[in-house]
Inverse folding.
């Protein structure tokens, strides 16, 4: 081996650390003698540079090459095969891609296993700045991807933070795989609870606190199955720190996932529904949270076309293509109304008048003692069927086909033509309505939707936010026909849903190459805006357009009505309802989180170019925000 | 013509009452809607009131957007407009404005503001974006 101390510009070619360190020690000894290293002939060589660090001692050398002896305390402390490693193996078996979480000490064991034993994939840890954001991200993700995301919550306070988002997901019939930590020996006594799940039990479908690692495996698999069987809803596992951190022997097996067939209506009900539909003179179909996937939309199109019935798709999901000739309420008074999964909050329900009403709903299986999640119309119909509507449709379609004859088909043709004319008239009316306030400042909601459409219509796009506060303009103007073109609303009416759900939806869309658009109310955005940082940090391309009407506008109108009902305070409604003085600069807010942002855009002429720049950003893989000062509704 | 002591007293009190009324309510008229025809409205003051009374909430800042009917241009004459605000047919949708401070004068100011508004609403056929959407085929 070359003497590296005489050839200063040559580096050792061997990575043999022991030899290298011995050579360094020799050079140091030579330098101590006379600052020269001796050659083989004994003659002094050129001066050597003093080493920059002291040579290792024998003890240090031994430590480099031999196992470090442990004290008994350290030996007991180090656990190289903790129970939480097995937990991660189980979570991976459930195909959980992501875990959204705001870190907490009660699950530090599980988090460490995720990032080290699991290599931070399957699931990947998504850093959130609020537990409400974690769960809402999982909510939006599931509506795109058709499977749950995990949300990991700190005990007690984290569950409390998350509770509104859990409620939204429950009302919206969306699966979320919740795990909460429990550490009775943790640093803060108030973070413990005897029954951690109690505070949200009324709005999770199932909860369990496994008391061993192997029980965790079985519980997790069961929880996943329950969450993803209609009626879908969040489930919660409470995992205590002892179970996470205790050592396990060997490699426990991961239980297999076994899922039941989804509940379909019984054959008798299917036959009766088919008969009613086929014999109806003027049927109508209402769809609430019906279509869980593209298959659901396609099945509903098939049924509607068979009987030429108009479909009121509602706003809770995209149940039916918005430009289908049968989309809408049709004409005249219906004599038969088929309700498919009417939602408690958003979905159309019931019938009214003299119509025979039929309801197919899995909500009949989802009972909560305290909260009126299914609305006042739940459980009322002339024919009420407890079943999953999407699962029932194939059998219903087959039965309708067997009942159709030439006479009925001729009748349906005329009916279909009338419905199509009505649909076209509604489309024209929407265009006519969109022109009002076109050049106004603040910018009209119709203008925002109309300016966006040419920028996205040739892309694979997804709209991720509710439409109720924006006049429904995307649905009225855009061609929505794929299940991810619109994913509906919050479910439980909890504000603060749009932004994190859109981040979750955009995350799911990302791997499919889709762009995601979110039109977000300013009030809604302010609840937990830290999720803007999450979108930047995890490079989730989402375009957020702030519908900045500078108020909790619904409440502003309600309060004005209340004051007028009491005949006083005609000008006091803005107290407690407006977000002005000062006006919030959302572009600056987004900049603070590292996001590209523009605004406030106050005139329509500036809107189109700003939107185009935003679209360019998200197509390049980055999130962006555009603040638009807009009309109230 | 002779005047009794009583009528003199009533006349005096009437004058006092009128002074009090004018003092309390300023120079604004507080007459009923039936007397409201032909009130001179102030559009600038009306613009402020349109916001203060949250009219924009349902009708948009320019009276053209939102959930409520378009008010630009107004559908009614001034008298009917004021009467409608006082007693809308469906108060759960359009709340009544019966507060004393929402005087006929102030409602007339709002009416004047609505009359003064220019329309920011070109014909749909003149808006290429909307035309393009209309031309796209149904599914």
């Amino acid at each position: 081996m070359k003497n590296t101390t005489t050839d200063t510009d040559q580096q050792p070619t061997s990575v043999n650390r022991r030899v290298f360190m011995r050579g360094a020690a020799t050079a140091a000894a030579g330098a101590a003698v006379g600052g020269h290293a001796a050659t083989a002939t004994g003659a002094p060589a050129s001066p050597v540079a003093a080493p920059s660090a002291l040579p290792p001692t024998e003890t240090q050398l031994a430590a480099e090459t031999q196992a470090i002896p442990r004290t008994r305390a350290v030996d007991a402390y180090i656990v190289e095969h903790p129970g939480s490693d097995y937990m991660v193996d189980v979570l991976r078996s459930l195909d959980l891609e992501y875990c959204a979480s705001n870190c907490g000490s009660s699950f530090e064991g599980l988090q460490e296993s995720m990032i080290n034993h699991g290599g931070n994939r399957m699931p990947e840890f998504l850093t959130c700045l609020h537990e409400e954001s974690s769960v809402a991200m999982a909510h939006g993700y599931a509506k795109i991807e058709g499977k749950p995301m995990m949300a990991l919550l700190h005990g007690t306070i984290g569950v409390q933070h998350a509770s509104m988002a859990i409620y939204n997901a429950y009302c919206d019939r969306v699966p979320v795989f919740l795990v909460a930590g429990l550490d009775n020996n943790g640093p803060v006594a108030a973070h413990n609870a005897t029954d951690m799940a109690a505070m949200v039990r009324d709005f999770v479908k199932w909860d369990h606190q496994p008391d061993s690692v192997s029980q965790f495996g079985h519980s997790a698999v069961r929880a996943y199955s329950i969450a993803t069987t209609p009626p879908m809803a969040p489930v919660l596992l409470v995992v205590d720190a002892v179970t996470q951190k205790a050592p396990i022997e060997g490699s426990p097996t991961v239980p297999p996932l076994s899922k039941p067939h989804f509940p379909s209506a019984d054959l008798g009900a299917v036959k009766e529904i088919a008969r009613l539909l086929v014999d109806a003179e003027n049927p109508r179909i209402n769809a609430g949270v019906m279509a869980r996937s593209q298959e659901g939309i396609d099945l509903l199109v098939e049924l509607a076309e068979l009987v030429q019935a108009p479909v009121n798709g509602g706003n809770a999901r995209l149940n039916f293509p918005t430009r289908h000739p049968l989309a809408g309420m049709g004409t005249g008074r219906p004599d038969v109304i088929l309700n498919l999964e009417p939602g408690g909050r958003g979905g159309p329900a019931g019938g009214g008048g003299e119509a025979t009403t039929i309801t197919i709903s899995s909500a009949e299986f989802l009972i909560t003692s305290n909260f009126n999640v299914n609305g006042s119309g739940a459980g009322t119909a002339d024919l009420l069927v407890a079943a999953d509507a999407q699962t029932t449709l194939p059998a219903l379609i087959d039965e309708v086909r067997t009942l159709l004859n030439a006479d009925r088909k001729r009748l349906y043709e005329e009916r279909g033509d009338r419905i199509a004319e009505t649909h076209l008239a509604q489309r024209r009316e929407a265009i006519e309505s969109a022109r009002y306030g076109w050049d106004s400042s603040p910018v009209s909601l119709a203008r925002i939707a109309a300016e966006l459409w040419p920028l996205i219509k040739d892309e694979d796009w997804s709209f991720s936010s509710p439409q109720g506060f924006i006049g429904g303009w995307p649905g009225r103007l855009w061609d929505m026909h794929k299940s991810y073109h619109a994913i509906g609303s919050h479910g439980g009416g909890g504000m603060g849903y749009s932004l994190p759900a859109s981040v979750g939806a955009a995350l799911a869309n990302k791997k499919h190459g889709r762009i995601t658009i979110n039109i977000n109310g300013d009030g809604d955005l302010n609840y937990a805006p830290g999720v803007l940082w999450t979108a930047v940090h995890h490079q989730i391309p989402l375009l957020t357009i702030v519908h900045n009407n500078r108020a909790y506008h619904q409440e502003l109108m309600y309060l004005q009505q209340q004051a007028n009902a009491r005949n006083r305070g005609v000008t006091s409604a803005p107290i407690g309802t407006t977000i002005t003085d000062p006006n919030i600069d959302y572009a600056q807010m987004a900049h603070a989180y590292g996001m590209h942002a523009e605004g406030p855009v106050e005139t329509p002429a500036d809107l189109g170019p700003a939107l185009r720049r935003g679209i360019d950003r998200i197509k390049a893989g980055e999130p962006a925000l555009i603040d638009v000062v807009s009309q109230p509704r | 013509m002779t005047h009794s002591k009583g009528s003199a007293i009533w006349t005096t009190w009437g004058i006092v009452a009128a002074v009090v009324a004018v003092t309390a309510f300023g120079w604004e008229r507080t007459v009923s809607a039936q007397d409201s025809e032909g009130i001179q409205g102030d559009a600038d003051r009306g613009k402020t009131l349109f916001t203060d009374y949250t009219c924009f909430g349902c009708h948009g800042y320019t009276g053209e957007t939102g959930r409520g009917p378009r008010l630009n241009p107004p559908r009614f004459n001034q008298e009917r407009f004021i009467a409608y605000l006082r007693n809308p047919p469906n108060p759960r949708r359009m709340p009544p404005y019966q507060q004393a401070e929402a005087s006929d004068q102030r409602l007339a100011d709002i009416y004047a503001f609505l009359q003064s508004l220019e329309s920011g609403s070109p014909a749909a056929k003149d808006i290429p974006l909307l035309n393009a959407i209309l031309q796209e085929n149904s599914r």
Notes: Confidence is low (pLDDT under 50) at residues 1-19, 27-40, 345-350 of chain A. The longest strand of chain A covers residues 515-521. Residues 406-434 of chain A form the longest helix (29 residues).
